[in-house]
Amino acid sequence: MSTATEIIEHPILFKGEMVRAILADQKTQTRRVMKDPSVLFDHVKLKEGRTWEVGYIGYCPASRDSRWVPSHTIKCPYKLGDHLWVRETWKPTGMFAGYRPRDTRACARFAYAADSSQLDRDKLIRWRPSIHMPRWASRITLEITEIRAQRVQDITEEDAKAEGVTPELIEQLLEPLARRADVRPYHWVQGGNEAIGYCDKCIDKAVRATRKRYPKDNDIDIGGGYSTQDEEGMACCASCAKLLDYTLTEWGVKEELGHFESVPLGKIGPCQAYQLCRIFEEVSKDPETLARIRRLGMRILWDSINARPKAVKKNPAGEKEECFVSYPWENINETREHRGKKWYVIGNPWVWAYTFKRIEGEK
Ligand SMILES: [Zn+2]
User: Fold this and answer.
1) 109 or 332: whose pLDDT is higher?
2) What is the distance in A from the centroid of ligand 1 to the CA of 230?
3) What pLDDT is attached to residue 37?
4) Three-state helix/strand/coil letters over the chain
5) Residue 313 pLDDT more than 70?
6) 265 Cα to the center of ligand 1, angstroms
7) pLDDT tens by residue, 182-219
8) How many whole angstroms from 243 Cα to the centroid of ligand 1?
9) CA of residue 281 to ligand 1 center, whole Å
10) 142 closest CA partner among 52, 59, 209, 78
11) Looking at CB atoms within 10 Å, which of 110, 120, 130, 179 has the fewest?
């Protein structure tokens, strides 16, 4: 039996940007998929320690009341008060740096890839993956102060903030993909009372057509090609539909948010990444808009980690099977195929939502 004073430690993996958010005290929550196949019910509540009860609220005819009907129990990997020591990408530095990993303990000098200032240190020594980080090389320890069982979409804006989601973070995440989008310089032509945007390749033809359409109009106005245009939504060439270089107005951010909130994101391509970056670069002062941006950001961040098929040896029902599984944000449940094997997609999964406080780790 464990006593109340016994502290149990577990390793936990975080990516570089999340490590930075923890060190900046901007991240105090993390969500991890609940892999128990038996959790199909509407409610999961803490019984004691690591044991949680799964069940539902049922109507009891005798008492004419609704009551808690437990079905079975499941185990959470952690319990309140447990410590989590953070595994991140690291390497030893200094004298012993060339030694085998386990022999570098003595030097006790390490660099962490999350600290961009350390990226250039000891360039000849390669970075070691976070998964192999030993306890003694870890610099951050967290104490679990709250555990909730919920679906990933139950996250509130407050939670998304505590997860460390900021517009800048999501923009950084999407930027490399967005840079691959075929974005053309914005040109426009105005005739009569319409102004239409075209790309650099289509503008000349559009100008000729406009002149033809308004032969008596001497006020045909042509512009653009020199700066980014402010738009109230995605801007595409009216002729070839290629993306045009634009930024969103405050109103435009709301319009585009409404669009992305109502469609499944799926696999984000370069054009979509470009559109999403335009939302995240516009730092809104309106708290309601900012909250919506955070929630969309959480969705993107979640999918960047959990929506890709991962090879596993057990299927979601707990049976032995070489297959793939993914846990995307979207509320979908289906079986697809990936590399000749079954791919189970479990959308809007149950998660353990951990709140923690940092008890070790440089300020
Ligand atoms: Zn065009």
Assistant:
1) 332
2) 18
3) 67
4) CCCCCCCCEEEEECCHHHHHHHHCCCCCEEEEECCCCCCCCCEEEEEECCEEEEEEEEEECCCCEEEEEEEEEEECCCCCCCEEEEECCEEECCCCCCCCHHHHHHHCCEEECCCHHHCCCCCCCCCECHHHCCHHHCCCEEEEEEEEEEEHHHCCHHHHHHCCCCHHHHHHHHHHHHCCCCEECCEEEEECCEEEEECCCCHHHHHHHHHHHCCCCCCCEEEECCCCEEECCCCECCCCCCEECEEECHHHHHHHHHHHHHCCCCCCCHHHHHHHHHHHHCCCCCHHHHHHHHHHHHHHHHHHHHCCCEEEEECCCCCEEEEEEECCCCCCEEEEEECCEEEEEECCCEEEEEEEEEEECCC
5) yes
6) 26
7) 999 999 888 777 788 999 999 999 888 888 888 776 67
8) 8
9) 25
10) 78
11) 120
How many angstroms is it from 202 CA to the middle of ligand 1? 4
pTM value is 0.85
